[in-house]
Amino acid sequence: MFYKNISISIIHILILINSINYLYADQAINKLLLQLGHVGDINHVIFTPDGKQVISASDDQTIKLWDMKTARLIRKIHAHSESIESIAISPNAKILASASSDRTVKLWNLNDGSLIRTFKGHLKHVSSVAFSPNGKTILTGSYDKTIKLWNIKTGRVIRTFYGHSWNVTAVAFSPNGKRALSASWDQTIKLWDINRRKLLHNFQAHTSYIQDIKFSPDGNMAVSGAWDNTVKLWDLKRLRLIRSFKGHSFWVNSVAFSPDGKTVLSGSVDETMKLWNVNSGRLIHTFNGHESWVNSVTFSPNGKTVLSAGSDKKIKLWAVNSERLIREFKGKTKAVNAIAFSPNGKFALSGGIDKTLRLWSLESGNLVKKFYGHFLPIKAVAFSPDGKMALSGSWDDTIKLWSIKDGYLIRSFEAHASWVNSVAFAPNGKTILSASLDKSIMLWNVKTGDIIHTLYGHRKTINSIKFSPDGTKALSASDDHTIKLWDLYTGGLITTFRDHSYGVNSVAFSPDGKMALSGGSDNTMKLWNIKQKRLIRNFNLHISPINQVAFSPDGKMALSGSRDQSIKLWNIKNGRLIRSFKGHSSFVESVSFSPNGKLILSASADGTIRLWETASGKEIAQMVTFKNNQWVTLTGKGYYNTSIIGEKYINVRLKNNKVTSINKYKSTYYRPNDAIKVVLENKVPSFNQNLPPSVVDENLLVLHYK
Questions:
Q1: What is this structure's pTM?
Q2: Whether the predicted pLDDT of 679 surpasses 90
Q3: Which of 168, 317, 632, 701 is the most buried (most CB within 10 A)?
């Protein structure tokens, strides 16, 4: 009995140790993620204090953390509901603060990306945030004309500084934390005593909006940049202007002192960054390379490199002494405008800005086929009812019909005088509809390519067209604020639905043909009774225009995709929100239910196609195409499929925000035949069963059993 107990105990210990090994190995690899760059203007970029990482903030509402040496993306934080204007890192490098147009300031745990606290109190756009040198407070500036000092621990306002007569655009703490500077569109810079809440001095010399202000490292000087195209240097002891740096041909958006205080950087709308000598005012270098406004500039902690970021959505790292571009921090994707499920639910079509129609397998995640022929972006896609043909509508004014099996072009339909925004197959597959910027709808014969009817009636661009389930009618949506119902036998207008206050972007029939959905630029989705020609219900929770709507196959749910980056699932009967699907970092352009309603596809301007589980809201996979036709499908479990060299766009985030390539983890995560299938069918093998020894790095502190 004694030996039996010992044996059982040993087995238990082995199981426990193996479980611990599994647990720690799983935690060692924190996440697999794709190299997706910002899809909005980059407003602010900073180094971490150790200079090993770069942090950026964008109009796309995200914060991104990058590895400085490799330019690999480490982490993305979907931080705010509107653009992020400013970020600041605490002196101990553990906390990040972000300021946004959504009127809030947020604190983030930089190690894991979790939200610590939200600061609410400003009445308008928060334009700037700065940490105090001791890390106990933050200072914020806002378009509500105030500066606020906040307690980090409590989130409460300690004091508010009044005095500016217009938008406050920048704030800064002095190196000793006793004073602060603020800059404003009122063309003044104000120096404040932080503890006494006292205005010490008012500086005036700029002749236009001041965009940025910085203290010198010793706190004795300040530098400012303004939309009068100048950079100005200020003496904070004698309270006077020292000199102006002139050389930019357009507005100056950002300024920075070097760590030794001997040079100053400036970034401008003229697409350049300039380096200046503080003592002489001489221009040392001009850094050229951005393709749009330079919005943010900064020095590395050692002063040997500098960063610039701009409206071209790129971050560039430069050598200070040579003006040499060292590397760029960016993604290489293009917007996807349209998505469609195949009738059997096993494939998807996508089309977008890169002018290519793509066919994806929704089991393996494999890019099956590419269809080339359009010379401008594709705006709409559709499968034929039998799944044998594909349809694409483009801004090149054409509709193209493709053979799915062979990949060849069957026919091009060319009669529209402008962009084709929407296409649809009839339920019997014999006709197609197209809608255009030219304000016309065309009904085509698939076999001959002839026009059967041209429907006129809308006064502006037509954005969406749909067949009724029986194929006898059509619904159209237009920028003229209306939805129209058409008789396809006669080509005549049956009725017009009016209630949207702005353009209507999308329309859909219910499966029984008795109801319709419409989504508009007034941020609402509407449910209509077609026979009674009346509005049944409004769905009002989106905060930006709705780009596409869809009914579930059973007609009980509705889907809406919006420019607010969210997808919402609704209960048709009571109008309640069931759930939101969040993950896209730009406009959601297209949404679709699978034929059985269990899955949802979405396409976005962020360059990703995402597959979601309807019941849980979980993201199952994302499919992304990169430069040179490379592609990656990455599942929520970390399994992936990829093109030949697509793996270079996959990053592995390890503990402590370290990042590496996928190369040595390939045998565990690469699933070329069933990347999505193993997740959908829950056939995910245990992590430690396939874990190669090389996955365990010495610096990960993974427990081994030997």
A1: 0.87
A2: no
A3: 168
